[in-house]
Amino acid sequence: MNFIRNTFAVLVGLGITGLIITLGIRAFPQWVTFEAFAPFEHWQRFLFSMKDDKAFFGFLLFISGLGTTIGGVATAIIVKYAKVAYAILIGFIMLFIAMLDVIIFPYHPTFYKISIFLTFFPFSWIGGKIVEVIYERNKKKRIAEKMNKPK
């Protein structure tokens, strides 16, 4: 049962991350050069049109970090054990996808190629730590309430 729960958690985290990145790209109408909702259907043409826009790639790094953090939080909330490890798994999968993107499509600037390594793992780790800290704080609070409970 834990395998199914953990798999579901990872899929939810990846879905949330992808949705946030998609919404982030669509946030600025001047960047939308496609008809469909998801920019990934026309990614090569889209990247070619953005290849000289450094602000776009900086924002893509930011929105990827934000999406990975929120995806890591969602994953860590759903899994029962090893919350930070599963959140980092979201970062690893997103890094793998970003590396494939950089290898397949040659339109990324150098700072983006380097910065993806500094974005996905730390932000997914932060997402997992947020949930871990909240759970630990609540656990300590429950233990303190049990100990201070009048008999």
Automatic annotation (TrEMBL):
Key words, A-Z: Membrane, Transmembrane, Transmembrane helix
Species in which this protein is naturally found:
Chryseobacterium contaminans
Keyword Transmembrane helix tagged = yes
Transmembrane residue ranges: 7-28, 55-79, 86-108, 114-135
Query: What name does this protein carry?
Result: Uncharacterized protein
Higher taxonomy? Bacteria, Pseudomonadati, Bacteroidota, Flavobacteriia, Flavobacteriales
